[in-house]
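Please go through the protein record below and explain what the tokens say about the fold. Record follows.
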Amino acid sequence: MRLLIVEDSAPLATALMRGLGADGYACDHAADGEHALAFLDAASYDLIVLDLMLPGIDGLEVLRALRRRNDTARVLVLSARDQVGDRVTALDAGADDYLVKPFAFDELLARLRALKRRPPDGAAPLLHHGALVLDPRARSVHHGACRLELTPKEFALLELLLRERGRVLTRAQIFARLYDGASETSDKVVEVIVSTLRGKLARCGAVDPIQTRRGFGYVIA
């Protein structure tokens, strides 16, 4: 999943980028509110880790701007402000969760997993395509009794296509959801991920659900 870290502390931001990246997230980093809004204008994010005390435009204004545009990204506020009133203000402004600094990284990961489990727009927690079942909560994929051992990128690609069923996504659109903005990898890597995913589906006896629309992109109908 694509995640935006909005944090003005360089050491903390670096640690978050490293730790969350190792857990399979594609992370971008904004050091202040102005750059956070620029990132949100340029890309779509599934999750946002947001500090409140930012230089210039503060975190609350970033949060309010996000909700004014009806952006449905899940927002975890990460702040040294530990008063009840601070938490209430952030939650009322549109935050989905609030974690006080200092914090345990394992708790941060658990809270992000909890946010991911909330089905968007009332969608079912499990994603199905025939006998193929993807469980976002367990981060698992099965075809019948066969479990597919997928890499984080293969899992993210399959989940994206299942959630966007019927919509043709270009290679560039898929790349933007799977990789952070600083990645030097070519978007041609999407073709490689599709190929390896298809191989694993075939080894489980699954009919390939991914359709290639030449000149357009990929879709699960």
User: Anything to note?
Assistant: The longest strand covers residues 74-79. The mean pLDDT is 91. Residues 189-203 form the longest helix (15 residues). The two ends are 22 Å apart (CA to CA).
